[in-house]
Specification:
Layout (H helix, E strand, L loop, with lengths): L1 H19 L6 E12 L2 E12 L2 E6 L6 E8 L2 E8 L2 E5 L4 E4 L3 E10 L7 E9 L2
Antiparallel strand pairs: 1-2, 1-9, 2-3, 3-4, 4-5, 5-6, 6-8, 7-8, 8-9
Length: about 130
C-alpha cells in the first residue's frame, strides 16, 4: 500500500505541476501548513500550496510520520485524501468547506478505502498558505 500511496501522490503532484506550468500566473507556496482532525485524532503537517486559475491544491510535505494529506479544489468541490499508515480515507467532495484569505477550511466525512468498512469518519481540515 505504501508504494501505491507514493505513486498516487507523485502522480497527483506531477499532473498538477504539468497542467499548471509556472510562468502563467501560477503561484506556488512552500511555506504552508495543513491540519486535519480525523475521527478525533489531529494531524498537523507542513504543506506545499499551489494555486492556478482560482483553484487551490494543498499537499502535505513528507515529514516521516506516515501521514499524508492532499486537498484539491475542483470547481465548487473539494477532494480530500488523508493517508495514515496503510489506510486511505477520502471523499471526492467534502460536505462543507470554504476558501479563506490564507487557504481553506472545512468539515465533513471521509470513508476508508476498504470494501469491508462502510463507516463514515468525521473530519475537519484547515490549511494556511504563507
Amino acid at each position: 500500500m505504501t508504494t501505491i500511496r507514493s505513486i498516487f501522490m507523485a502522480c497527483s503532484a506531477g499532473l498538477l505541476l504539468a497542467a499548471c506550468g509556472g510562468s502563467d500566473g501560477t503561484e506556488d507556496k512552500v511555506d504552508g501548513q495543513v491540519s486535519a482532525t480525523l475521527d478525533g485524532t489531529t494531524y498537523t503537517l507542513p504543506a506545499r500550496c499551489r494555486e492556478h486559475e482560482g483553484e487551490i491544491s494543498i499537499f502535505s510535505v513528507d515529514d516521516g510520520s506516515g501521514v499524508e494529506i492532499a486537498a484539491r479544489q475542483m470547481g465548487e468541490k473539494l477532494n480530500l485524501d488523508i493517508f495514515v499508515g496503510e489506510s486511505d480515507y477520502s471523499t471526492p467532495n467534502l460536505d462543507q468547506w470554504e476558501r479563506t484569505s490564507e487557504g481553506l477550511e472545512g468539515s465533513g466525512r471521509l470513508w476508508l478505502d476498504n470494501a469491508d468498512n462502510y463507516r463514515e469518519y468525521p473530519v475537519t481540515v484547515q490549511a494556511s498558505c504563507g
